Amino acid sequence: MHVVIIASANHPLREPFAGGLESLTWQLARGLSQRGVEVTLFAGPDSDPMLEARELRITPLELSDTARADVNMPPERWLAEHHAYLQVMLELQHRDDVDVIHNNSLHYLPIALGATASAPMLTTLHTPPTPWLEPAIRLMDQSRARFVAVSQHTAAQWRHVAEADVILNGVDVQRWVPGPGGEDLVWFGRVVPEKAPHEAMQIAAASGRRIVLAGPAPDRSYFEGAVRPLLGPGAEYAGHLGVADLVRLVGSSAATLVTPAWDEPYGLVAAESLACGTPVLAYRRGGLPEFVTPGSGVLVEGGDVLAAAQQVEQATSLDRATCREHAVSHCSAERMIDAYLDAYAAGITIPERAA
């Protein structure tokens, strides 16, 4: 089987990962290759050269001075992303060696031009409906397309335009390994308003526990205005860490706080935490209740800092071995890759090719 994976063009697939989407796509490409699948990966520049899949770099955007002078010139980053996906889809029009295209991006162009490729397309829905992607799916020919959502919650959000199977995201339980635990709480992910790390810091302070934060901070105004003022003896920012350092940090923590200010489609950090044996205290939002279950975590209503603080001791008392076992059974990358291989096979007929 030959699978083309279309990744996000905004960030490279390399550690330290920009976010869960990049981590997940890296894991998928690597895992499929290890299963003997031929993988062609379209990804952002400077992606991990050690990926077993072949990476195809996208030609940089070139514009004449006349084009740049157009009064309707959109932001160059937006235009570069648009043309990156256009180049990918134009190439796929002429490829007769591809069995399935796995669209793992968040862009509308692969959807809009999917019918021009000879191979069928499977699209993973990682987000709620967006004003660009929703019309593209509504208008496309879905007879040669399949959709997968990362949670039942996300599948329900898209049901008005497409029916999607559900494949929960997975983590590499051979890399995210159990740790000894500790006294401090931890929060990790992108330090942005929709992830609300400042609320995790408030929860920790109200519970009397110290907390360590880790992750990229792309929104500097949010970091300076909402996060930095809460740093001090009881709250530390460890920076943007690679997987090995994150595993050590999470594995040596008492519990992970997951505090989204929106309905997380899945919540990969919770699965990563459980793989380390570290219990989860999370807001009951989005896809999190589908895999953060009693015995592995505690859920409270979104935004209720006081209720969360009152549940910290309950969360930290959960059995770490049970958390790890739950992650291996329900959140592993092996389970996810099995499910995607089944989805590929169900939607395609692999032709016999000449040697």
What's a quick, concise take on this entry?
With 355 residues, the chain is an alpha/beta fold. The protein is 36% helix and 15% strand. It has two domains: 2-170 and 333-347, Glycogen Phosphorylase B (Rossmann fold), CATH 3.40.50.2000; 185-330, Glycogen Phosphorylase B (Rossmann fold, 3-Layer(aba) Sandwich).
CATH topology assignment of the largest domain: Rossmann fold
What number of structural domains do the residues give?
2
How much helix is in the residues? 25-40%
Class inferred from helices and paired strands: alpha/beta
Q: Give a quick account of the main beta sheet: strands, pairing sense, barrel closure.
A: 7 strands, parallel
For the record, the CATH architecture of the largest domain stands as 3-Layer(aba) Sandwich
Assign the CATH class of the largest domain: Alpha Beta
Give the SSE order as H and E letters.
Answer: EHEEHHEHEHEHEEHEHEHEHEEHHHH
Describe what this molecule looks like in 3D.
This is Glycosyltransferase. It comes from Ornithinimicrobium cryptoxanthini. By secondary structure, the chain is an alpha/beta fold. Helices cover 36% and strands 15% of the residues. Strands 3-2-1-4-5-6-7 form a seven-stranded parallel beta sheet. Strands 10-9-8-11-12-13 form a six-stranded parallel beta sheet, with helices on both faces. Helix 5 links the parallel strand 5 (121-125) and strand 6. Residues 350-355 have low confidence and may be disordered.
